[in-house]
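Appendix B. Chain record.
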Amino acid sequence: MKIKNGYTAVTRFIIASPYKVRPVADLVRRKPYPEAMALLENMPHRGARLVGKTVRSAAFNALGQNKKLDEDMLYVRDIQVDEGPRLKRVWFRARGRADMLLKRLCHITVVVDEISAVKAGN
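Structure tokens predicted for this chain:
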């Protein structure tokens, strides 16, 4: 879908801590699409695979809506990793006690845009 001069993709309710996914997102923000995908494919982090799927989906949304675009003409304009709800689980401990285990979820929002649109605006 097209939002605010860009094409977006949202992945919601991912069982991954946003604190672990944000550093991966920071590395590819404001990079050209091919360079961002090369970085994400070669990173060992689990969050890199999750962010890569969302970036690829946003790029396919852009290419599907505008047939004149090429992958080399896209760049990652913005990535947001927001915190989702927390799943609360019981963690049984020694001597009959129990702790609360919080499984954190996150939402990833990626906006890609045309490189030529940025140059025309300046």
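Further analysis of this model is presented in Appendix C.
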